[in-house]
């Protein structure tokens, strides 16, 4: 069943309308698919360096999941009450106003584009790990991935959704099998390992940042509210159930890895699951785990592309981007927004290659503060909207209001301040990217809204 649509224009597009074709299963697929990716494959070693004890390690991942639930409460309340595509942009615009909405939308657009870049780069690194496409750099392979995701979504919304469902099912099944093998299969003694490092608060902070990044993407369902059946119920269900499943999966993966790898080896591992599988099943198993990692990051990249397209569409529909970007094809895809999103992702990968330093880390540093700004704004917006529109139906209300929103705002504010202070170079680039949106907003305010 689709939303009301205008008659097709001469160029074959339907302007400004989307198709309501997705169910709860798709909502779960984008939440799980939007979270589980390179983070759980790359970050266990980083987290182990900060929490060099198995119990502390699992506790840290558990606290990460609980923090995400807290962070999600104000966002889900807004998303259930304001069922519009576009994610945080649409929610903050309704709650606070167009200027704040644009700031959040621009920050979210930047973080989506940049994070897709480092996700795609991780894909390129894993392809190289298999010994494939060695003539191409990781950046070139990353661009190929976003082009493939773009082609799938160009076909239509149903094609993009189906690919997401299949990819999420494959990686969920693959990770479950991997956990079972690591926990149950007999194996010999692990190689000799140095003693784990001593606990330090500096390493623990780096580890918590890695956990924060690994759980990123839990808000994916709110980008598709106009395309999901019964969004007033399914946005909350998909988000919280998805977070619970991801937390259980992350704990299982870490428990399985710790059961095989000594902590002294884990802290130096760049792909812990593959290294653990190599001990249990032999060197050839690393290829299987790397293929699983490739599926994880490819599915995550597809989620990010779909989100970016909906965000671009929503901003254009509100007149803060060119109206042409709000055009929707007969198959339900905002194709002009898709072209812009893919071009921007390719450009950020090329730009990152020009910056000295490891490509993955450069992109990660640029992306981090935008996420914190977005969730800080959503928490404050939820409080403001309660006072501004107390009679607005809220199918899901956060408990103990306003405590969850205040705690989420405070934690994201602290994380944002800590990032800005700890890495002034990356912070400077991030602020520069954010300020580039100001002339865009000022130009579009009079021109595109009038159109």
Structural features, described:
- This protein has 451 residues and is mainly α.
- The chain has a single domain (18-390, 399-445), classed as Amino acid/polyamine transporter I, CATH 1.20.1740.10.
- Helices cover 71% and strands 1% of the residues.
- The protein has 18 helices and two strands.
- The longest helix is centred in the last third of the chain and has 33 residues, at 285-317.
- The model is unreliable at 1-14 (pLDDT under 50).
Quick rundown:
By secondary structure, the chain is mainly α. Helices cover 71% and strands 1% of the residues. It has 18 helices and 2 strands.
> What is the helix fraction of residues, given as a range?
over 70%
Helix vs. strand class: mainly alpha
CATH architecture: Up-down Bundle
| β-strand amount | under 5%
Helical element count?
Answer: 18
Mean pLDDT: 87
Looking at CATH, which topology would you report? Amino acid/polyamine transporter I
Largest sheet: 2 strands, antiparallel
Number of domains: 1
Please give the alpha-carbon distance between the first and last residues. Answer: 30 Å
Order of helices and strands: EHHHHHHHHHHHHHEHHHHH
Overall shape: globular
